[in-house]
Design goal:
The protein is 52% helix and 13% strand. The protein is built from 20 helices and ten strands.
């Protein structure tokens, strides 16, 4: 009997030990799954980035390959976004510890809702797996792409990702860039009034239309193809009628190849508003006398109506998707970030990027500001200001402050001059720096409260370091701050009328 009891007890003890050992192993495997998944994604991202950088070093002209490269690039951005959002979870806890509440529109909060994280983070993020799976499939199919890259001539400059570190890069427009170059280098039918080669480029304000076209004009292939590149401002076209004998006097000559005998002309028209049919016909008839075979016209505007002037499929520019915009903002703001506080700093930067609503100028202005002041306290304060501003605008005006600016409607900034006053931004616009004197008052002066003028005034928000070297100016005034509830009631009354 004792022998049986001993055998049973030994079996129970053995089974219990096996159970606990097996459970411990499963827990260890589950706990390491996140680390393994992150490392795997980092390796695949490294392969994707190497392919993208190699492609950016070459003049790829094949449109199918450009579309494939665009797919890889966006999948890479998505992977980086998912990885950073996953990594900066600890930063969210640290920011919350400093009396911040998670924004309703927070990127991290949205990601949390779409995943199955438990309080102790034992379950791997679904978005991370999805990003890894999509990127792995694309990278696996890029072997032929890499082989074909060898057929294209190299560009003697660093890839875009390297230029991001010196603020000297046009970001996220490589596919559109090559499409414009391809259009310009095509030899069309002899130029007549019925077959002018016109490419319309349409997009919202400050989306990068002028920057894209300016970079194309600096391309060696384009400069070797055209004898002259002439720029026309839409306001000047409306004010004065172009004269066939003085067409170059009405525009700005951006480039002239004195050694070229073919006489091909590239005309750039930058329209701030719609152009009437009569002005367009007069302009075309005046340009015909100067346009040799192969001459081209590019028209940029915010208005969809310019599409009617085009002879090629219009190019439409939109703001970057969230994942690509985060990659862009991260390379600016987190350039000097240390590893010890990276999760918190990364979380704050990701939240600020969400508040900026895909604004290129906003990324440059705020990203440069954050990079210049590495104090975490300052970064938290900037995030707090952005959240308060967005909440107040949604309550008072029903729209995001960046959306108001894009519609050329006033945006309010509280807390710069005093608790009872607000800085009202009436307009944010760009000027060509060498051609117009810019204000001495800067964005940094405004944030530090240095001698802020009264009444209406302007200040310099940012100077671009890439062509066309625009200066971004802000026209604003100081006004007495209005109660959010009072403004909401007023808005409701206006809507009911």
């Amino acid at each position: 009997m004792d022998a049986i009891v001993s055998a049973v007890l030994a079996d129970i003890i053995s089974r219990s030990i096996s159970f606990f050992v097996d459970r411990y192993r499963r827990l260890q495997t589950g706990g390491g799954a996140e680390e393994s998944l992150q490392q795997h994604l980092r390796r695949v991202l490294l392969r994707a980035r190497a392919t993208v950088e190699e492609a950016e070093r070459r003049h790829v002209t094949n449109q199918a390959m450009l579309r494939q490269l665009d797919t890889l690039r966006h999948s890479m951005y998505r992977g980086c976004y998912a990885l950073d959002a996953f990594t900066c979870r600890d930063g969210e806890d640290q920011v919350s510890h400093h009396s911040f509440s998670l924004s309703k529109f927070s990127s991290a909060k949205r990601l949390c809702r779409s995943t199955s994280w438990t309080p102790n983070n034992m379950v791997v993020d679904g978005e991370l797996r999805k990003a890894l799976g999509g990127l792995e499939m694309i990278v696996a199919g890029m072997e032929e792409f890499v082989i074909f890259l060898e057929c294209y001539p190299p560009i003697y400059r660093q890839p875009c990702s390297s230029y991001l570190f010196s603020d000297m890069c046009m970001f996220g427009r490589q596919t559109e860039y090559e499409r414009i170059v391809s259009f310009l280098l095509q030899i069309a039918l002899p130029v007549t009034s019925n077959n002018l080669s016109v490419l319309p480029i349409v997009g919202p304000g400050i989306v990068g239309k002028s920057t894209l076209v300016e970079h194309v004009c600096f391309d060696e292939r384009v400069r070797g193809f055209f004898s002259s590149i002439v720029f026309f401002d839409g306001d000047d076209l409306e004010a004065t009628k172009p004269d066939a004998n003085h067409v170059h006097d009405n525009g700005v000559i951006k480039y002239r190849n004195c050694g070229a005998s073919h006489g091909r002309l590239l005309v750039i028209m930058e329209l701030t508003r719609d152009l009437v049919e009569e002005t367009w016909r007069l302009l075309c008839s005046s340009l015909l006398a100067h346009m040799a075979h192969g001459s081209k016209i590019i028209v940029t505007s915010r208005s969809e109506r310019i599409v009617r002037f085009g002879t090629a499929q219009p190019l439409r520019l939109n703001f970057l998707p969230q994942e690509a915009y985060w990659y862009f903002f991260k390379m600016i703001a987190l350039r000097n970030a240390g590893s010890e506080d990276y999760p918190e700093r990364s979380y704050i930067a990701m939240e600020i990027a969400t508040e900026l609503n895909a604004s290129f100028a906003g990324a440059k202005i705020i990203g440069t500001l954050l990079r210049a002041n590495t104090s975490l306290r300052f970064w938290r304060k900037v995030l707090e200001r952005f959240r308060q501003s967005t909440a107040k605008h949604l309550l008072m005006f029903g729209e995001h402050p960046m959306d108001l600016l894009r519609k050329e409607r006033p945006m309010h900034i509280w807390g710069i001059t005093g608790s009872s006053e607000a800085l009202v931004v009436h307009r944010c616009y760009q000027v060509r720096s060498p051609q117009k004197e810019v204000p001495r008052l800067t964005m940094h002066d405004m944030l530090c409260g240095r001698a802020i003028p009264r009444g209406k005034f302007e200040f310099l928000a940012w100077k671009s370091q890439i062509p066309p070297y625009y200066s971004y100016l802000v026209s604003c005034s100081i006004t007495t701050s209005q109660s959010p509830m009072g403004a909401k009631k007023k808005r409701c009354r206006l809507q009911s009328i």
